[in-house]
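Hey L., structure's done. Input below.
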Amino acid sequence: MEFWHGFLLITSVHLLAAASPGPDFVLVSQQTLAKGRRTGLICSLGITFGLAIHIIYSVLGLATVIAHSQPLLTAIKWLGGSYLIYLGWQGIQAKPKKSLDLAASEDVGIDTSNTKSTEQAQLLSTKKPSTDSDSTFAILRRGFFCNVFNPKAPVYFVAIFTLVLSPDIPLWQLAIYGVWMMVLQMAWFSTVVLLLSIPAIHRRFQRFEHWIDRILGTAMIVLGLNLILRSR
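Output:
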């Protein structure tokens, strides 16, 4: 298969796969709406790193082994499902924010034309912004494991690489395909994060943030249970 033919094929197939709703999409949406743009982008980067693992073992030919090994798929299914349930449980435990926290997080202009408004402005300016207790590494790890433990990935990569692989395909071409898939993945989720973190949109979600966390957490638990309980 010619390079550009394979390139366009991988681009179209992987964009459709990345855009389809699944655990990665739910996690990125939840992290962005709950904790902001920075957390959403770091989580997206973690998912992209997870994708690199799938690409590497697929190029090495291990994807076929995993896809046809019931014990391995079952183990991945249990690990992935359990991790999604864990993330979902964290989400449904979300608590509503206090009114002062909401006011500080909305980042809107304050009318300081009167004394009361001036006092409010001073109060908000002296209040330290709430910091996310999760470290960058913890956020990266969350996205990474969410992607790595997806049992659909080995089957997907067997299918997509079967479309473009041939015995004489050079390693540099495989490397370009793999890196390009990572770029597509990061670009898609970055777009999702940027859209969800638009101030006008983000502020609308702020007052209902704990309910969104609970709903998306429930969705993650359902996805996790579905992975564990469904037949192959």
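The radius of gyration is 21 Å. The chain has a mean pLDDT of 74.

-- N.
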